[in-house]
Amino acid sequence: MLRRSAISCFAVWLALAVAPAPARTRPHYGGTLHVEIEGEPWQKPDGLARRLVFDGLVQIDASGAPQPALATEWKSENDNHRWQFRLRGGVHFHDGTPLTSANAVASLTVACGVGCPWSAVRAVGTSVVFTSDAPLPNLPELLAGDAYRLVLTVTADGSTPLANIGTGPFRLASFDNGVMTLAANDDCWQGRPFVDAIELRIHRTIRDQWLALSVGRADLVEVPAEQLWQARQQRLAVQVAPAAALLALQVADAGALANPNLRAAIAWAVDRGALSNVIFQKQGEVTASFLPAGVSGYSFLFPSDRDLNKAHELRGGLTPPLLTFATDGSGAMQLAAQRIALNLREAGFNLQMVGAVAHPDLVLRRIPLQGGQPAPALETTLRSAGIAGPVIEPGSTATYKAEREAIDRKILIPLLFLPRAYAVGGRLRDLRLAADGLPDLANAALQDTQ
Q: Looking at the whole model, is its pTM more than 0.90?
């Protein structure tokens, strides 16, 4: 009897052991993903909504190499002065308008106006053709940037769209009271996303984002670099993309700072170590290079230590007029700008912190880094800062020379590489961060709790 009872107990235990556990970790199609951010969802170059709603002709893979997107293939001619990109067939914008070379050209023309890398772009059959007076060896990588994602400018009936319409994995369903709803694009050329919708709450403070995550009202929230340590102390599940952005000081080369020695003095006066250790809580990687070591392999060749004596020597006793200093961010960016202003005052410069002005003498900027190939990554970084540098041919020697020339101009002074990070809720699965740190929400899923 005892033996039979023991066997019965074992059978019950075995049944429980092999019975299907609740589908706690199984991703599935469906559900609404809740995301909160501080900034603007459509901003260039790294707005989250832009990444979800619009596609580019080209996309960058995990290794930094260009891959087909809305263009299936491309070729260059005339020593990279002419490029032809063949469009993918059967693709439609979210309103049903077919993707054509004509509306691709219209979007690209609006995207960058007179600041395009190319001289001309035109539709030729099912292809988009770019021509340039100078060679464009890195054009495929450039076209993967957020600035060149295709947006519908004219509908099939000739009217102007009332909303942002793209070909991406999500379409804009509504935007009300600070909440943007993006619905899955069932007919997306890349395949349907896992989730049915994304609810994106904008202009949310980090404190409010973390609170929403803690009570289950958010699945994904931001973690600023300076709060990474705090997030880990609170045992948040954090995903980090290292060296996703460049903190840099943009310096005018006209007016009071037309003298290159004064710009060089500014570069030597900044204490990068203090910015990293104090403002960004040791999460920033000090740099005097535009490219991380993992991309270029030679960033150590650019000295990054502060030299206040050299700054005074380069200034040469000159007392520049009052300089205006702005930043394109808030929070830690404002604190970093104040720290830099203190450094420059110690070097003999007079500065006034200003808000939005037309042409400040100095601007502290955070520039997203794109791609893992040195030449196109450098060109993209410079263009993001509005600097049209020389043609950068592939190869480490040519890239180093181009970077050295750009750094020596002292109109964009690299300071730190900063990570981008997100805290993830318990029901979000299969999240990956792109090289620039933005989350790939099209391939993320929600836990099946049914």
A: no
